[in-house]
Amino acid sequence: MQFTAPTLSSTQDVFAAMITPAVLILATGSLILTTTNRLVRVIDRVREMLPEFEAFAKEGTHDEIGEQKRTMMFEQLERSTVRARLIQRALTRLYLGLGLFLATSVSLGIMTLARLDAAWIPLTLGLAATGLLFSASLLLIFESRISLSATYAEMDYIRNISHQHAPPELRERRKRWSWIG
After folding, report:
1. Is there a domain that residue 165 lies in?
2. 160 lies in some domain
3. What is the model's pTM?
4. Nearest Cα to Cα of residue 34 among 78, 72, 90, 81
């Protein structure tokens, strides 16, 4: 088999074909960065809860407000645990997708240099990577819904506590907004 140098036209075609995976590699890297930041926030939140759980273990009082807080904290811990696991699964898919996009780009170059007629290889790699990104996105949607429910639960807890300690005129003002939720 004799080697012949690629023409300018074929080189341009290869680079054009390799641009799409490069853009997807960049997008996947961005998703990995933001998803890692989400995981760090979940871990930090759980670490912030530790002193409160330790205080619960030491105290022996079980008043109504303390029980509400304890319940809210345990629910938050449960949500944070599920969130961390979803984020970890999403990160695994994102890293696998990144690797497959890199493999797609490399395979395009190899196919052209070796003059192989095996377009199914980069196509399969690219489709698999896209599927992984899609499934990671679904996991992150579920995680964001859990995060939102945790935020709502905290706000509801704070509203209930503040309602118990608020002067009567502020309690009346709160009733005006009760139709919103």
Report:
1. yes
2. yes
3. 0.78
4. 90
